[in-house]
Amino acid sequence: MHNVIKYFGILLLLSIVSCSYLNKGFDTLKDFKEKRNSYEIVVTNIRQYRDNLKCSRSSCELEIEDINIDKESQSNFFGIRIVSSKPLVIEFNSTESIYSYIWYAETADSVKYIFSDPEVVANELTLEKLNEHWFLVVRDWN
User: Fold this and answer.
1) What is the per-residue DSSP string for the chain?
2) Would the pTM count as exceeding 0.85?
3) What digits encode the pLDDT tens for the residues 76-108?
4) Integer Cα distance of 76 and 55 in angstroms
5) Cα separation of 132 and 142, whole Å?
6) Helix pair 2-34, 36-52: axis angle to 10 deg
């Protein structure tokens, strides 16, 4: 009987963690829909900065700290990371969650770049295409 109680306790814990994990994806998606304009402003700023530097594929690693993004736009996100400058791939973390992100992919090459990521190939990340340039990315370590 003691083992049965322990087994159900473990199942209950796993179901709570799974629900929390799913809610993070919903929270991220909801935030993206509500603050879409802020996402677009950041992308425009990064693209303009990159183009002014004349970045090429082999020479220009950008850091978000180098780009003049106004404090109001930055305050909408827990974190912003430039995954790749050419092709442009930007990761937006709208919550403190390490499980879900929004990724921006500038071109078809950017999408190919995302799908060549070893974490995506290893199925640690699942992607849901929201539209041509935007993806909901969910990390699944289970």
Assistant:
1) -HHHHHHHHHHHHHHHHHHHHHHHHHHHHHHHHHTHHHHHHHHHHHHHHHHHTT--SSS----GGGS---HHHHTT-SEEEEEEETTEEEEEE-SS-SSEEEEEE-SHHHHHHHHHSHHHHTTSEEEEE-SSSEEEEEE---
2) no
3) 888 888 888 888 889 899 877 778 889 999 988
4) 27
5) 28
6) 70
Cα–Cα nearest to 128, from 105, 95, 98 = 105
Q: What is the mean pLDDT of the chain?
A: 75
- The pair of structure tokens assigned to 105 is 């992919």
Smallest CA-to-CA distance from 113 within 95, 92, 133 is with 133
Of 128, 131, 112, the residue nearest 25 (C-alpha): 128
DSSP string over 102-122: EEEE-SHHHHHHHHHSHHHHT
Q: Which residues contact 81 (CB under 8 A, 6 or more apart)?
A: 64, 90, 91, 93
What is the percent of the chain with per-residue pLDDT over 70, rounded to a whole number? Answer: 72
The string of pLDDT tens digits covering residues 41-78 is 999 989 888 888 776 655 577 777 778 787 777 788 88
